[in-house]
Amino acid sequence: SPRLYGQGAPCLRGPEVSAALEENPMRIGIFGEAEDPQCLAVAREAAALGADALLFDSGALAAGRPLSLLDGRMFYLGEPVDGLRGFYLRTVPSPYVPAMERDDTLVLYEDWFTTFAQTRERAAYVLSWLLQLEHQGATLVNGPHAASMLQYKPFQLHVLRSLGACVPRTLISNDPAAIRAFHAEMKDVIYKPVLGGALTRPLDAEALERLGTVTASPVIFQERVSGEDLRVMLVGEDIVSCVAIETPEPHLDFRSDPAYRAGQATYREVALPEPVQRFCREAARACGLRLAGIDLKHQGDRFVFLELNSSPIYLDVELKLGHAISRAIARRVVEAARP
Ligand code: ADP
Ligand code: MG
Ligand code: MG
Questions:
Q1: Which ligand has the shortest distance to the CA of 200?
Q2: Which protein residue's CA is at the shortest distance from atom 22 of ligand 1?
Q3: What pTM value is reported for the model?
Q4: ipTM over 0.95
Q5: What SS3 string covers the chain?
């Protein structure tokens, strides 16, 4: 039966967990939100492989629960955590807080700095611990460096380009003149943020009107690539799933489709040519990713890479098509934990 510690609140009940760990040395760590369905799915698959999963609630510090690093030894909710060699990192603690919330409303003009500073300190603490685990030889899927730093699209495009993979013509700039020249040459241009967090939009007449605002921070401008949207799930060296995302209506960004947003997207399996598979593996490796959700545009025999995601959401595909993604992740993590 699956044994998962740390699910729900209160998280770890100390003595229980210590006893269980003595009993079963094969244990993996999972770092994420307490009720995250992907965390639970990976924990279940790990249990099926004979491993106990310790769920570290990424919200524990924010909730004021006790964590202590005593001379380098982690005490999570008062209990020592030793010998973790495999780890699924679902949530990347971010030192950058995009918006401040209190009681579910945005707090933009009040005392945001205190929250910001505390969040940054908490992220630094957790990231240090995760880096320490990696330094001690644990395998993190994904490692905190790869998960946070290398998720930058401009760097990923560089990696893909240098491998010889097909990427869209791209300008990343805060220079209105350069952007106008790019637009004049490419005609059909889209734009999206460097770090993410917004839908892709067309560089149309109305957007060109507002081009002056771009001096504040650079934006990604790309040739608009036609074709269907593919999502590739790569775990280690294995392509575990490759699907086309189908929405009732065509969209520039499929996430703006109401059916998709309502969880009604459908998926169709797509076979990737060997050279494209190789680009996936090599790009992930170059970005330090052991797990990646890779986005491509596909039309005919043209496969154009858009980005690699270090903590992809995949459960919908797993449930609808029966692709064993959680199992592949669990296997990769448990492999590392095997004594
Ligand atoms: P995000 O991190 O926001 O998912 P993506 O680069 O994957 O960033 O862009 C989101 C979606 O927008 C893509 O899945 C695709 O549907 C659309 N998109 C992004 N770039 C282009 C492009 N150059 N041409 C056509 N569609 C694009
Ligand atoms: Mg994407
Ligand atoms: Mg992304």
A1: 1
A2: 224
A3: 0.90
A4: yes
A5: CCCEECCCCCCCCHHHHHHHHHHCCCEEEEEECCCCHHHHHHHHHHHHCCCEEEEEECCCCCCCCCEEEECCEEEECCEEECCCCEEEECCCCCCCCCCCEECCEECCCCCHHHHHHHHHHHHHHHHHHHHHHHHCCCEEECCHHHHHHHHCHHHHHHHHHHHCCCCCCEEEECCHHHHHHHHHHHCCEEEECCCCCCCCEECCHHHHHCHHHHHHCCEEEEECCCCEEEEEEEECCEEEEEEEEECCCCCCCHHHCHHHHCCCCEEEECCCCHHHHHHHHHHHHHCCCCEEEEEEEEECCEEEEEEEECCCCCHHHHHHHCCCHHHHHHHHHHHHHCC
